[in-house]
Specification:
Pathway: Pyrimidine metabolism; UMP biosynthesis via de novo pathway; UMP from orotate: step 2/2. Keywords: Decarboxylase, Lyase, Pyrimidine biosynthesis. It catalyses: orotidine 5'-phosphate + H(+) = UMP + CO2. The chain has 230 residues and is of the alpha/beta class. It is built from 10 helices and 8 strands. The chain has an 8-stranded parallel barrel, surrounded by 6 helices. The radius of gyration is 17 Å and the shape is globular. The structure holds ligand LLZGTKA7. The site of the ligand O=c1ccn([C@@H]2O[C@H](COP(=O)(O)O)[C@@H](O)[C@H]2O)c(=O)[nH]1 has 17 residues, from strand 8 and helix 9.
Length: 230
């Protein structure tokens, strides 16, 4: 069992840079996230390498397709031995249930969670997609649908953590990107929260990429974040 709440987003375009960071950390100091960029560049072998080193790996491919396709993709992801995978909740309950059922054949299936509203989105971006409710209500709606579909948790902003824990219970896992230590550049994120506030509000895991990977001393930054939320 690894204890850190930090999942480092390995969004590197060079494998050597990612491995240099991985060489500097341990499975107790962080979990690792492989997203679309590194998976597209370096594929399943890269994921297996991280799993082989004993890390909990979140394969963040955000599947969103017809139920059959998503189910097969989730089974393929489970074969890699990863700790957690995800789909988009907006794919609907049939899609999420198919994903869940595809994992039933595994003794140790990955945790399956669903993305609610991307942390890069603000009210204007969301309404531009045709959603007429406010962000908080839409996140709550999608998180409820996710729980009813049998999944273990959601990706959301830590801004929504308190209300989701109250609505869906403390066992429902909340994974929150959009984490920014005080003074860090926000970049393309909109719904940002500091690590300290996120943990105080009850999140289970914080996804942190650039504030760590682009830092002049990534290991020291990770250590400081871990220490700040003890
Ligand atoms: O709503 C979401 C879902 C996923 N992400 C991913 O998390 C990291 C965040 O990286 P930062 O550099 O800390 O912004 C990135 O890999 C995203 O693809 C997200 O940001 N928001």
């Amino acid at each position: 069992m690894h204890n850190s709440k930090v999942i480092v987003a390995l969004d590197y375009n060079e494998k050597e840079k990612a491995i240099a960071f991985v060489d500097s950390v341990t499975p107790d100091s962080c979990k690792l996230k492989v997203g679309k960029e590194m998976f597209t560049l370096f594929g399943p072998d890269f994921v297996k390498e991280l799993v082989g080193r004993g890390f909990d790996v979140f394969l963040d491919l955000k599947f969103h397709d017809i139920p059959n396709t998503v189910a097969k993709a989730c089974a393929a992801a489970a074969e890699l031995g990863v700790w957690m995978i995800n789909v988009h909740a907006s794919g609907g309950s049939k899609m999420m249930q198919a994903a869940k059922e595809a994992l039933a054949q595994y003794d140790k299936p990955p945790k399956l969670i669903a993305v609610t509203v991307l942390t890069s989105m603000d009210a204007e971006q969301l309404s531009g997609t045709g959603v007429t409710t406010d962000i908080q209500s839409h996140v709550e709606h999608l998180a409820k649908l996710t729980k009813e579909s049998g999944l273990e948790g959601v990706v959301c902003s830590a801004m929504e953590a308190k209300s989701l824990k109250a609505l869906l219970g403390t066992d429902f896992t909340l994974v929150t990107p959009g984490i920014r230590p005080q003074g860090s550049a926000t970049g393309d994120q909109s719904r940002v929260v500091t690590p300290q506030q996120a943990v105080a509000d009850g999140v289970d895991y914080m996804v942190i990429g650039r504030p760590i990977t682009q830092s002049p001393d990534p290991l020291q930054t990770l250590k400081e974040i871990n220490a700040s939320v003890l």
